[in-house]
Predict the structure of Glycerol-3-phosphate regulon repressor.
Amino acid sequence: MEDLTVRQEQILTLVHRDEYCSIDALSQHFSVTTQTIRRDINALCSMGLTRRHHGGVGLPATLSNRSYLSRQATDQAEKRQIAERVAALIPDGSTIFLGIGTTIALIAERLVHHRELRVVTNNFEAAHILSQNEHMEIWLPEGRIRSHDGDIVGDNVSQLFGRFSADIGIIGCAAVCRFTRPPMSGQSDTELTEFAMEYELREAAVSQAIIHHSQQTWLVASQAKWQRKANAKVAAFDRFDTIFTAKPSGD
């Protein structure tokens, strides 16, 4: 990074930490004009180190997720807030599905005092946390543990979810993207619809299995997910009963 200025290196550090930074926030942080920040962002984007977004800058598009530890350190306050809201709504005695992701692991931390929960998950970190409560029944699929992602993958994962009917299925996602959806029967206009997305088809397939076999489906997504790009569709937002996010309403 010898071609970067000190401020550009600091901007890059902030973007990797938070995934998205607004131009106004960076301007205030460095006490420079928004025009100066835009020049810095243009330089970073021209080198492929960042990606422009409306009003800000984020991580470049990628076909793979960042490491679990890297994601775990991102947006902690927002993820904890989401986790607390979700855990408070899960009644004792429920059967729940937990998908992959760091927010899901934080939800597991807040479920440790619940009683008589049956939890089916391929989230290895969540299973480890919940296994410390003797009042929990934990089910894990067979498969390979991905140390990079903190989860279990393999053909048996979706099959295990299909053997249960959950009261609540909770998934995260890698990104939220908007697509034009064809008009439904009797309608003439297309519509823009937000979709939960994953990086890999096998990850999307597991989330779809959770959705399909759950009485209620909940999505958890931090605000940064709206600034990221992934290519494997999971489900449109209207497929979820509840969406938990700190994203401002109507944004």
Remarks:
- The chain has two domains: 6-58, 68-244.
